[in-house]
Amino acid sequence: MSRKAILPVLKNPLKAPSKIEFNIPGEISRATGGYEEAMQEGYDLIRRPIKSVSIDQIEKQHFKKRMTVWERIKVLTEQEPNILFQNWGKNLDGASLVTGIININGRDVAVYGHDFTVRAGSMDATNGKKLARLFEMAGENGIPLIGMNDSAGAYVPAGVGGLDGYAEAFTALRKISGVVPSIMCMFGFNAGGGSYLPRQGSFVIQPKDTFFGLTGPGVVKSVLGEDITPEELGGPMVHGQSGVADLTVEDEVAALRTALQLLNYLPDNNGVLAPFQETSDPLDRKTWEINTLLKKAFNSPTGFNTPFDVSIIIQQICDHGDYFEMQRDRARNVITAFGRLGGNVIGFVANNSAVDSGQIDCDAAYKVARFNRFCNIYNIPMIFMEDTTGFLPGREQEARGIVQAGRAMLDSIVDIRTPRILLILRNAYGGAYASYNNYPTGANLVLALPTTRLAVMGPAGKEFVYKDELRKLRNAVVERIKLGIRERLEAGAAEDAARNDAEMEAAEWLKSQESALNLRYEKELMNPREALSLGSISSLVMPTDLRKVLGENMNFFLRHYKAGPLQAVHREFY
Question: How far apart are CA 131 and CA 556, in angstroms?
Fold first, then answer.
């Protein structure tokens, strides 16, 4: 006796059958006709993008630990989405792309998502038009955009139509860049146009076990003969380090939740401020932890050369210690983050001496430039925290174009039109100081801690300031060695031993003399006094008063700042 196979179904077998009636509640039933048939057909069309997908396709998504596009939308909002351009496509099933408007905490947000259960989310001319319409609508109405990318790329049977679709979407998204912010989540396996399109957005979030890139491993193998895994080619570890992905997270839910968290710090468009959020954290709260951090660091055996994690200072300044760091996996020698101070969204840029002494290399410079540009376009005020010995020198950095990267950072700082404050924590040397948001480059206010060491050069500057004294000391070494050898020989020591001892003694003496000059240089020139006297620094501030002083000054600047777009539209990328 053969057993009938039990197939999975989406319907609950225990649920009583229901029939959709197209009558007014309480209306006396009449004979049905063409009207009811048209209503039924219309209802079925409305439901087709959701109901036409077989359970097998949905199970395949779940087996890959991926959600359907409809499940992803439900993570973003509990309210029903307003789906736009719903039945576009040859089969009237949405053509593998969902576009709509959703409500997130009272804000309208444009959203799109590839439906991988329909034709692997691939792109044709229809999809390009849908995306272009959505992007144009977001720009015209000044609402942010969230993209959920899960596409196999251009739909091959569509021929050039798929390429035209991508080109149309590329163009529309570029035109709203700098007008409304956009957050792109990368799901599944995306290549070619499926990578270019989301990277046009403001921010890219990539979970683990996903891929996006120019081509897939198969093409790399056939063209270059190179065996490489998707993770090694275009996974989150690769893109997180390069800056192609702004944020890397654990899974899809984390990506969507991170998008919601980031959205909380972003304005709707380039004509308004980011959302203000009332806080119960007093603006005059003392920041004792900053005092403790600096005291432990600078009173340690390595003194003022001791590195510390600047993110602790950002945390103590922000409302309830909450801030949102960008590009966390890249160039940790500088921190870029959004936070709130007195309820206002602030962009923080801070040198982090805990990594490479906070020196600015190519990656750090481009990371800062990218962040500055975004804050400038979208009316986000900024606080810079300086603690760096300068740009990282060396053959590798020059070969990578440190001059170009430094110029990009400097240009982005000069261009800032939003309120901005510079707080010097410790080191501010040479070109790094000159290009890091001081008064000449446009800062509204420059403050400094008493621990500030502002100078043309670091300790190496003693070579120039005390060159005559150093020349005499180094010339004296030869005479000290001769004298030491003579004294030891007279005392009965062997010649070789006498020479070695005399040379070691002279070297120790020279080292102690140079150390004394180092201390003298630090006391005389590596301090905030000259900068204060020249007006390069407005005033000193104590570590325990940082939140109060920064918050009150930023509130003053914001009271007199009128948010609005730049005179000509500036895109987020060059």
Answer: 41
